[in-house]
Amino acid sequence: MDVLTRVDHLVYAAADLSSGISEIEARLGVRASLGGRHPEWGTRNALAALGERSYLEIIAPDPDLRSPSAGRPFGLDALGPSRLAAWAANGSALQSLRETAARNGVALGSIRSGSRQQPDGNRLDWTLTDLRCVVAGGVVPFFIDWKSSPHPALHAPKGAVLVALVIEHPDAEMVRRMLHAIGIDLPVEVGPAPAVVAEIDCPRGRVILR
Question: How many domains does the chain have?
Fold first, then answer.
């Protein structure tokens, strides 16, 4: 199986949603469309497709929503420059996956439910492992199951395609072991800090986003 088929979405964290949308449009030549709000997290997002079942999520604080007591995910309350902060892998039977991961020393956190209203009024529902359970600086994915909801990539603006995903981490061997334990076989390279590095074909050519 092509490992990229496991990539559900990439998370591009921005301090301001409008600025994040403009940054991605300048980089990729694709303008993301508004997704919706996440009241539980105090965030809102915009999406651009990266394939038939893969997308780029631009996520930022929602100024009309309070930050939860535990803070917004992805370090959004103290974010500097926008960056790829995390990524999500598609999955099912998440409780079983979580237990297998735990037996192999990978703590994915509890299974949670989420939902949001799309601009067209339709509602998306999902289950996912805990966003706040950051593993290896965010380079180990959280998992999401869209259940019966249509995949968000289906209606997100097209034009960009994910062609490669590489992980960087100071302890590359540790991260390789963690990814193997959860059934993910991505390239992992030694880098000065944890980073998710995406190679994307788009109207601007082939772009590296990190």
Answer: 1
pLDDT digits 0-9 by tens, 104-123? 999 999 999 888 887 777 78
Reported pTM: 0.95
Instruction: Give pLDDT, residue 118.
Output: 79
Residues 59, 82: Cα–Cα separation, whole Å: 10
Q: Whole domain around residue 98: which residue ranges?
A: 3-209
CATH number of 192's domain: 3.10.180.10
Please compute the mean of the pLDDT values over residues 185-206 and round it to a whole number: 97
